[in-house]
Design a protein that fits this description.
This protein is mainly alpha-helical. It contains 18 helices and two strands. A hairpin with a 4-residue loop joins strand 1 and strand 2.
Length: 376
Amino acid sequence: MKPQEEKKKGFWAKFAYKELSRIDKVQDGEELFLLSDDEVAALKKIRVNTFIKAGSAGALGVLLLFMPYYIFGETLFPMNHIWLPIYDGYVDVEISFLAYSLVLVMLEIWFLTYVNIKAVAGICNACGYPNSADKNYENNLNALISVGLEKKQKQLESIGINPYEGLSPTGVVIFQIVLRLKATVSGILFKLLVKKALGRYAMRAVIDLAGIPVYAFWNIWGARTVMNEARIRVMAPPLIRRCTEILYDEQKNNPEFTRVLYDTLQLISESKRSFHYNHFLLSVTLLERFGIEIKEEPPYNDDFLEEIPGYSEQTQDAIQKLFVFGVMIDGKLSRREKKAIRYLTEKGVLKYTEAEIKQWSQDYFNGKGIEAFFTA
């Protein structure tokens, strides 16, 4: 069975698996989520090196695309006259230039994928993760591989939690498209600004090459996102186990909380509007610890938020503790999550302030731990 599964993996998935499964040292517990000075220095070095490589790839991509075009012109990239029956006429298309552009894009994507995987592997080596003795080792490893390959994971669907609950199908499509248009749109806008600034003296070559800082920036931004994601996935498991045990000790004899656990996890997911592995791991760990059957299509309680103030004080305390922990473990507070925090505060559900939650989230990302949250 294993050989067949191995064959199904693509080249980059196999490469990522090889890089991420050979960790020199293993850490667990506080060693994993509390970063030492040496680990911070190692992570900073990985970050700087990755930024240089990603930014250089973006700049070099633009140079390699346009320099031959303006130096050799139609000698290398002749204009082709293509007949379009619908248009009932000819259109001028530089087919060879388009093909050359596509080759460069593919080469850049391959290089950036390599850089991302090496960065994720470097972060794992610096922090000593994942631990092969962990029962979730394969899940954790595959989650890190997905980070390096910039693939979305949707394990939450397998346990019946949907971050897009409440959004129409059209809304989901628009939400995803907007996330993918940033680089192209910003590149076009930047070129328009350059053209506006230089006026009629602007040469096309200058305008095209003006895209260098834009594409370098977005490559660096993408690499930063990958490294941040790898970092928070590395540090989350021991904190998730600790939060689960605290909640279980406090709520194991409270059937009311057990009954609304699924609804609380769904509330966290909706506040994120994204499939996140840390939330999946938190959900699975909690559901298993409380002995709750995992369902692919559990019923959603649309009125849960309004019902929270009516629950017992013990249940409310658990809901708010779990909600705050859940929004923190992706390493940042999004605008949507801040809005949800303010709304829950107005409803009298949260006793923590937005400033406290933001500080705990930053402490978690910076490897300082969140002891202040657990003892609050």
